[in-house]
Design goal:
The chain is an alpha+beta fold. It has one domain (about 5-189): 3-Layer(aba) Sandwich (Aminopeptidase), CATH 3.40.630. It is about 30% helix and about 35% strand. It has helices at about 20-25, 45-55, 105-120, 135-145, 175-189; strands at about 5-10, 10-15, 60-70, 75-85, 90-95, 125-130, 150-160, 165-175. It comes from Cellulomonas soli.
């Protein structure tokens, strides 16, 4: 979905993802960055443009470029997807960052901005996350956000090599948001 939502704070700026971000993303995306995704690794700027166009076309998905708030440099991308405001839920995912941003406040800042908007602006009651069961780095990062592990959907997705993947599902509910928010703010302080 095309959108005009911009969120910023804590050194991070989330802007609508568009083709102008393709070169910045293509500069660091490789198979290691793309591990756990269900589409082939976009190799080069043209492939990244195509990936961006596909992301923009998906109903219920608001894709963002993650930028450095001061310099505008591209740090990565993340999305809301399966947004269903009438049901009160959304998932956050399709997230990847340049390795230089791994282990920094970048991911907590992005997730804080997205979660705050989901719970405090959109009034949603559930924000979910999922990751390939083999992507232990991502699962651990989601748990550090304050998300509760709900379970594993077996053979849920198809990997790019044709094998089946199990997905770990985690979520934060509206009543859990204050504690998760406080934890994220402490990490960002």
């Amino acid at each position: 979905m095309l959108h005009d939502l911009t969120l910023e704070g804590y050194g991070t700026r989330l802007v609508p993802l568009d083709e102008s971000h393709a070169a910045g993303l293509a500069a660091f995306v490789d198979d290691r960055i793309w591990a756990g995704m269900t589409t082939p690794t976009p190799q080069g700027v043209d492939a990244m443009r195509s990936w961006i166009t596909t992301a923009q076309a998906q109903p219920g998905r608001l894709s963002f470029a993650v930028l450095d708030q001061a310099t505008g440099a591209v740090r990565g991308s993340t999305s809301y997807y399966d947004l269903e405001p009438h049901v009160g839920r959304v998932e956050i995912g399709n997230t990847f960052y340049a390795p230089v941003w791994w282990g920094t406040t970048n991911n907590p800042a992005c997730k804080y901005l997205l979660l705050r908007h989901a719970f405090e602006e959109l009034g949603l009651v559930r924000v979910a996350f999922r990751a390939d069961v083999l992507n232990t780095r991502s699962v651990a990062a989601i748990e550090r956000l304050g998300a509760v592990r709900e379970g594993v959907l077996r053979r849920h997705r198809l990997r790019t090599d044709g094998t089946r993947s199990d997905s770990v599902y985690l979520s934060i509910l509206a009543e859990e948001w204050p504690a998760a928010r406080d934890g994220l703010l402490a990490r960002l302080a």
